Amino acid sequence: MKTSYNEEDIIETTDSSKLEKIEIELLLQGLYKWCGYDFRSYAYNSIRRRIQHRVEAEKLSSITGLLEKILHDPACLRRLIADFSINVTEMFRDPLFFLDFREKVIPMLRTYPSIRIWHAGCSTGEEVYSMAILLLEEGLYEKTKIYATDINADVLKVAKSGRYSLENMKKYTKNYLHAGGNNAFSDYYTVIDNGVKFHSHLSKNVVFAQHNLVTDQSFNEFHVILCRNVLIYFNKELQKRVHNLFYESLAMFGILGLGDKETIYYTDKDDYYEEISTKQKLYKKVK
Length: 287
Ligand SMILES: C[S@@+](CC[C@H](N)C(=O)[O-])C[C@H]1O[C@@H](n2cnc3c(N)ncnc32)[C@H](O)[C@@H]1O
Prior knowledge:
The structure is a single chain. This protein is of the alpha/beta class. It has nine helices and ten strands. α1 packs parallel to α3 (63-72).
């Protein structure tokens, strides 16, 4: 086994990562020009891993080969876009976030005559149904309109259906109880064909729509924006742009909720928010 590298090895390594970078740039540029999906400002290492996975899965020998394939094979194009949209989610994900929302945000929302909430990057909708349940229990659901958006049309179909796998319900029930829920969680769904369907009254005030945070504008003014575990996939520049979009879209004293590993700090907007929960990523627009 080799224990040290000579100069040629180093030049080769540098050249191959430079070449890989060029091929990735060309692929993302081609994808953008061909179908308008703009992944050019996503976090490089994460996008690189997904591209490499797709090259292998398609049994191709290079990223350039993948570029050719996505331009000529619509099914391969769809598979690559699906690879880029990481849809992992769960109900009452990070239960203490929802507990803090219940204890610190709900009292403020109570004072409003009507409430508009935007879930940006809602994936298959588990976060949206969690919020609907919380609002229902707090007596605020009837005066709330929820806008649930994602770049990916397929996950939105699942979100609209409100159908999830039965085996997740044990974990979701636990999350719900940790998030301050005090009813029987099973009251909110019906078991159908080895799966569950959440009751349709939970989605009657929800609009599910496709929206791309990279290329689309704001579409309303909101009292709450939750965008959790989405910005983590964007590079710093894109995170800044999206934070501007959220700032412009929030009403004064509106609430921004981020994911566990995300923060408002180190963006241009940190002076414009006050932290309302020290542990959970909940911020109030104050300027
Ligand atoms: C990991 S999921 C997070 C789901 C949920 N917010 C949560 O925290 O459980 C990330 C979601 O962001 C969506 N997404 C990625 N890029 C996006 C973009 N440019 N615009 C809107 N949604 C995007 C993905 O399709 C995916 O459904």
